[in-house]
Design a protein that fits this description.
7-stranded parallel sheet
């Protein structure tokens, strides 16, 4: 039994839960039993219930009761996978106290020092030797991406249709900032907002008839296939878009996303527009983008075998 331990909220974002949906889909294909451990976030719990996925609601503020040990015994877990970004020492030490395999994905918390396997697919700017964990697996081949991407991969050649997708929560309202810049240059766009988006009023005031707003679409990857350029955040979405051949303009909503944005720009499939507090508006001038080149670079740079590679390592070391 594998525990997939995640944290999602308006502030934390929804990237971890969407990644869990992709990984558990792979686990189901392999007939591997699992349970998702998640904090009490209404939008996330609604999503898990709609997909009929097994989950337990966790209070991550409780660092004393050792609820980790109780759940490990309840489900007879032999693998615990943290996808929380900042795992605590208390959580990880409690898990390791039960003598099971502890793994983590892109973890920068103090608890990362305890992990057996660390899958670092997005810790850009760090050397492998700088990443904590007994065994570190580094690089794009350990990014969990939507398996539908392969079906919708295609080359773009012109910037005719724009989509704005800045995450399941868009904590700081970067969607509104992007729309205002696009309007300045005379571009229209379609906009996707997620289940934890809380800037409806500001967005409604910003848009005009050139913009359509979609709420929590069934498949973002499929929707992306109809567009030539995506305005995204610096999380998994920009990587998935590039993997499908969709060039990106990246806005960093969090400080750690700055490194991602710059790295993706170096790979050629994206332009980094900057941190949301100090955006470079010229990055949105589509006539300056070589769409054909960017589309090819994105597809070449990203591996689609992340779930398979991570699961293989978990089986090998469990």
């Amino acid at each position: 039994m594998i525990a997939v331990c995640i944290e999602a909220s308006h502030k934390r974002g929804m990237g971890h839960i969407f990644r869990a949906l992709n990984f558990t889909k792979y686990l189901e294909e392999k007939k591997e039993p699992y349970v998702i451990l998640i904090n009490d976030d209404p939008a996330s719990l609604k999503l898990l219930s709609e997909y009929k996925l097994p989950y337990e609601v966790i209070d991550f503020q409780d660092t004393e009761s050792n609820w980790e040990a109780e759940l490990i015994k309840k489900y007879q877990m032999d693998v615990w996978l943290n996808d929380k970004f900042e795992s605590s020492s208390a959580l990880c030490s409690h898990v390791k106290g039960q003598n099971i395999l502890l793994a983590a994905i892109d973890d920068v918390g103090e608890g990362a020092d305890f992990v057996d396997l660390h899958f670092a697919g997005m810790l850009f700017g760090r050397k492998k030797s700088e990443i904590p964990g007994k065994y570190v697996f580094y690089g794009f081949e350990y990014n969990i991406l939507n398996p539908e991407i392969e079906k919708f991969q295609k080359k773009r050649t012109a910037a005719e249709n724009i989509i704005v997708s800045l995450g399941g929560s868009d904590t700081y309202g970067a969607t509104v900032l992007a729309v205002n810049i696009l309007k300045k240059y005379g571009y229209g766009a379609d906009i996707v907002v997620g289940p934890n988006f809380r800037h409806e009023k500001e967005l409604e005031e910003a848009i005009d008839t050139r913009y359509r707003v979609f709420h929590t679409v069934p498949s973002l990857v499929e929707m992306f296939s109809h567009y030539d350029v995506a305005v995204t955040g610096g999380g998994v979405t920009c990587i998935e878009a590039n993997a499908a051949g969709l060039p990106c303009i990246i806005i960093a909503s969090e400080i750690h996303e700055i490194t991602t944005g710059k790295y993706m720009e170096q790979l050629g499939g994206a332009v980094f527009a900057g941190y949301y507090k100090e955006l470079r508006e010229e990055a949105f001038q589509l006539e300056h983008l070589d769409i054909s080149y960017m589309s090819e670079c994105g597809k070449k740079a990203v591996s689609l075998k992340g779930s398979e590679n991570i699961y293989r390592k978990l089986r090998e070391y469990r």
